[in-house]
Design brief:
By secondary structure, the protein is an all-alpha fold. It has four helices and no strands. The protein has helices at 2-10, 15-33, 38-45, 49-59. The termini are far apart.
């Protein structure tokens, strides 16, 4: 967190990039928590499945192998 604060003070912060990184992290966590079940992940994130699928595609989030993450 201190790195981000330092970037803000130095005027180097890219809000869009930081928001995207946070979104990707949240989506990955939801997918891992749901064992890769996208519909459940969408419910967990309170977004439509179509929105989640679009973000997965746009951000290039890998979804294969997550069904084993909960075991």
């Amino acid at each position: 967190e201190s790195d981000v604060i330092e970037e803000v003070h130095e005027g180097k912060i890219d809000l869009d990039r930081e928001v995207q990184n946070y979104e990707v992290e949240l989506i990955r966590c939801a997918l891992v928590r749901t064992g890769g079940r996208q519909r459940r992940a969408a419910r967990l994130l309170n977004v439509k499945i179509s929105t989640l699928n679009a973000k997965i595609k746009r951000f290039g989030i890998a979804t294969s192998g997550l069904e084993f993450a909960m075991r």
